[in-house]
Amino acid sequence: MGQFPITRTTAPKRKPADDTLTFGKVTTDHMFLMNYEEGKGWHNPRIEPYGPLSLDPATSVLHYGQAIFDGLKAFRGDDGQIRLFRADRHAQRFNRSAKLMSMPELPVDVIRDSFDALVGLDADWVPHKAGTSLYLRPTIIATDVMLGVHPAHSLLYFLILSPVGSYYKEGVKPVRILATDKHVRAVKGGTGEAKTAANYAQSLAGQRDAEAAGYTQVLYLDGVHRQYLDEVGTMNIMVKIGDEVITPPLAGTILDGVTRASTLQLMRDWGLKVSERPITIDEVMAAGRDSSLKEMWGTGTAAVVSPVGTLGYKGEDVQINGGQTGELTQKLYDAIVGIQYGRTNDAHGWTSVVKVPVTA
Ligand SMILES: *Cc1c(COP(=O)(O)O)cnc(C)c1O
């Protein structure tokens, strides 16, 4: 992409103390923007002071939800270096989402440049305290101003940053999840493989019902048989039955999680038996009853892993590993976090160091 203009803020915001950070409530001083017009392509990359977007009320994204995003993190290592975790893979997935939602792709190096440039400029916003990080939220929205339904001819790419607190303030903590055959997350041919706004809008009802029933999250089943595990909330799901780790395959409904891919790789490195295959809720519940269900966890950027302590289905609860975080779940968490903060050898080259401009 080369050079692009940077307009610095003249009114830097106050940075909150690291131990007050939660998720997504605070944003940094700058944002990256770039426009797309049909015939002209992606153009006008720039960094500006963070601030509201001005949109005509007839802007298509506000009506039909043609929008994609991704989410990744930058970490301040013990050595003071700032590292992005698997930025290329996130950029590639962002483009896959774009394609699925009928949007033009961006060159991966342009996405990468936007990550590096904005994190470099707002480097002081990467928190220091253990477990904290800077969350990157790249987004594309359709900006055609007209109420007809069609793939947009004009779009806006923006990247914003948010310092976030440790997901686990008191250690990795198991949750209660509810498998449901009432709500469905995705069907083949639909939008399950894309990180798109609509998937989140439609997940709210299932989430609300699970919370009302005393659970933390929903475990979605497939839309056809209402039997096969799909995803848990907005995380990928993994179970360990006996000595086999099983996760549903990427077969048309499941988001290709970067944490999913990373944990699968680590477990294969460790010589564990790992299967990407369909698995039914009946099989998991049966394993829960006879205690061959050893561990169960979700994977995602926000938490890394989220152990399931209790699984509910059709009025029955099974406890997993006595409701405690399993050994493998904890080992995966420690391994990923170790790489992210530059504490352990990054054998697969998953992290990249962000150059901080001297003037930032
Ligand atoms: C983002 C997301 C995940 C997790 O992906 P990561 O790349 O690991 O953060 C899983 N499922 C859904 C539906 C998602 O949107």
From TrEMBL:
InterPro entries: Aminotrans_IV (IPR001544), Aminotransferase-like (IPR036038), B_amino_transII (IPR005786), BCAT-like_C (IPR043132), BCAT-like_N (IPR043131), BCAT_family (IPR033939)
EC assignment: 2.6.1.42
Ranges for region Disordered: 1-20
Gene Ontology MF terms: branched-chain-amino-acid transaminase activity
Keyword Metal-binding: no
Pathway given in the UniProt record: Amino-acid biosynthesis; L-isoleucine biosynthesis; L-isoleucine from 2-oxobutanoate: step 4/4; Amino-acid biosynthesis; L-leucine biosynthesis; L-leucine from 3-methyl-2-oxobutanoate: step 4/4; Amino-acid biosynthesis; L-valine biosynthesis; L-valine from pyruvate: step 4/4
Keyword line: Amino-acid biosynthesis, Aminotransferase, Branched-chain amino acid biosynthesis, Pyridoxal phosphate, Transferase
Catalysed conversion reaction: L-valine + 2-oxoglutarate = 3-methyl-2-oxobutanoate + L-glutamate; L-leucine + 2-oxoglutarate = 4-methyl-2-oxopentanoate + L-glutamate; L-isoleucine + 2-oxoglutarate = (S)-3-methyl-2-oxopentanoate + L-glutamate
Names of required cofactors: pyridoxal 5'-phosphate
Cited SUPFAM superfamilies: D-aminoacid aminotransferase-like PLP-dependent enzymes (SSF56752)
Protein origin, superkingdom: Bacteria
Residues modified as N6-(pyridoxal phosphate)lysine: K195
Compositional bias per record (Polar residues), positions renumbered to this chain: 1-10
Any matching Pfam family: Aminotran_4
GO biological process terms, semicolon-separated: amino acid biosynthetic process; branched-chain amino acid biosynthetic process
Family: Belongs to the class-IV pyridoxal-phosphate-dependent aminotransferase family.
Job of this protein: Acts on leucine, isoleucine and valine.
NCBIfam families, per database record: ilvE_II, PRK13357.1
PANTHER family membership: BRANCHED-CHAIN-AMINO-ACID AMINOTRANSFERASE, SUBGROUP IIII AMINOTRANSFERASE
Protein name stated in the entry: Probable branched-chain-amino-acid aminotransferase
Organism: Neoroseomonas lacus
